[in-house]
Amino acid sequence: MEEVAELGHLLVFAFLFCFAAFMVGPVITDVTMGALCPGRDECSLAIYLTGIQQAVTGLGALVLTPVVGNLSDRYGRKALLALPATASIVPLGILAYGRTRGYLYAYYITKTLTATVCEGSMMCLSLAYVADRVPEARRAAAFGVFSGVCSAGFVASAIAARFLPVSSTCQVAALAAVVTAVYMKAFLQETDSGASSCSYDEEASQPLCIPSSSEELSPKLPPLRKAPSLSEIAALLTSRHEERGTEVQNAAAAPVSHPQPRNAAAPASHLGSYSAPLQRRAAGRCRVAGCRRPLAKLNSSTFSRAAVVTFFHGLGDAGQLNTLLYFLKAKFHYSKNQYANLLLIIGITGSFSQLTVMPLLVPKLGEQKLLIIALTASCGHAFLYSIAWSFWVPYLAASCVILSMLVTPCIRSIISKKVGPFEQGMVQGCITGISSTANVISPLIFTPLTAWCLSEATPFYLKGFSLACAGFATLVALATSICMRPAEVQQPDRK
InterPro entries attached here (predicted)? Predict the structure, then answer.
């Protein structure tokens, strides 16, 4: 695929970023419990500390990720990608220097602060970068390839953590984070779409409004929006657009001082009260370019259901993330090597799925059907984790990610096809922000539930009850996805 070949530097950057970010995953549980509760297999303090970090990170990402996505529409994807690439170095450097109680608290504080702009923003900006480069018809496969490369970085980090000692693992992770930032700065190229271009073809690359004579003044375009307003987001989630091209109206917009004839073409909202000929010309060119018209092609019903699916899937996924490692530690006495083996299985099957399975299945099934299959598999492996009766059952459950890993690429592709090139950063940021909302709520539910289930005070013996609850949250996402309309590739109007 030629379009994917053009993403080479982005894919290398994503691989290195995930390699550095995930390398400490297999060791952080042992490091945390060794510093806070040495010699024990169950530690409520460690569980609550992890939950607090996840909640604060999700709250910060909820606020910052949509803003970062919008800023990338204005200043470019590469300029904003430098933020997560650089910020991720700090906590890894602290963990590489020391792993005692004081350094561990410093790691969690800096990790919480930097993760608000690292985890969600990196994925949001990278997917917007992919959307800038790849046509709509091939975008789902490209998203799958990108996610597969991220999973490959996850696999490489799990292999490194499996064979390196704890101290070397943290040091290699910090070094990899530095290399990631340098590589991104040196080799990644800025995209033409989303930052400086407003066209699909040569006609659309012309100035938006051209005066008919030298006596007419060229209208001045307003600056690009810095962030979506609350009214726009509310309208996006609740209103239903009857026809494609209906714009999200600003509730506080001033009345137009120059009324237009009844047969005049409706002007774009940002052109104000220019003359009717200029308005018709600008409206026609905006239809060609698909530019500067916020969310003009997005069907609100599709977005609302996609938001619900994203939220409940994120709620269940974050619940598993916050619960699984401590559950395995308490029930089966897992250590660093067992964690690494489990994550290795997840990473390998996830990479194979996104690099091979998704490009093959999307053209035949479509994103919606594949999304339903992926959510079904996600429910299945959550419930299988919860009833694990032997140490090998989690390894069997991990193999289900060959399908469950396709949830996020399918959702992103469905939403990406519904908007124009200049809304990619904002919409991907909104979806990431919704996922971050789930990351805020999930620890508030699953952290005390997990601590209670793993303690001696529980009235029934089911240590995996919190994992089962995470599966039920994913089940809600599955039910919502069945009601979604199939994704439709909408082409810009040409006149």
Answer: MFS (IPR011701), MFS_trans_sf (IPR036259), Sugar_transporter_CS (IPR005829)
In the block, residue with structure tokens 């994503």 = 14
Give burial (CB, 10 Å; 0-12/13-18/19+) of 9: middle
Q: What is the mean pLDDT of residues 315-326?
A: 83
Distance in angstroms between the alpha carbons of the first and the last residue of the chain: 30
Q: What is the pLDDT of residues 65-104, one digit of tens each?
A: 878 888 888 888 888 898 999 999 999 999 989 888 899 9
Distance CA 63, CA 340 (A): 33
Any idea which of 36-50, 87-101, 174-188, 361-375 has the lowest mean pLDDT?
Answer: 36-50
Rg (CA), the chain: 24
Give 38: exposed, middle or buried? Use CB within 10 Å, 0-12, 13-18, 19+.
exposed
Whether 458 contacts 252, CB under 8 Å: no
Question: Of 256, 288, 289, nearest to 270 (Cα)?
Answer: 256
Task: Say which CATH architecture domain 7-191+295-482 belongs to.
Answer: Up-down Bundle (1.20)
> In whole angstroms, what is the distance from residue 232 CA to residue 247 CA?
10
Under 8 Å between Cβ of 285 and 206: yes
Q: How far is CA 8 from CA 11, 180, 399, in A?
A: 5, 14, 28
Distance CA 68, CA 481 (A): 28
Q: Are 371 and 358 in contact (CB under 8 A)?
A: no
Residues in CB range of 202: below 8 A, 6 or more apart:
none
Kindly report the pTM of this predicted structure. 0.61
Kindly report the number of other CB atoms within 10 A of residue 68's CB atom: 26
pLDDT tens digits for 38-57?
Answer: 877 777 788 888 888 888 88
- Report the distance separating Cα 416 and Cα 123, nearest Å: 14
User: What secondary structure does DSSP assign to 250-302, as a single string?
Assistant: PTTPPPPSSPPPTTSPPPPGGGTT--HHHHHHHHHHHHHHT-S-TTTT--HHH
**Do residues 283 and 230 touch, judged by C-beta distance below 8 A?**
no
Q: Domain coordinates of the chain in residue numbers?
A: 7-191+295-482
| Weakest mean pLDDT among 270-274, 293-297, 366-370, 451-455 | 270-274
Task: Tell how far CA 72 is from the center of its chain.
Answer: 15
Identify the DSSP state of 419.
Answer: S
What pLDDT score does 193 carry?
54
CA–CA dist 126, 138 (Å, integer): 16
- Name which of 220, 253, 206, 241 is nearest 418 in CA terms: 241
DSSP state at residue 250: P
Q: For tokens 């990479």, what's the residue?
A: 351
Cα separation of 455 and 452, whole Å? 5
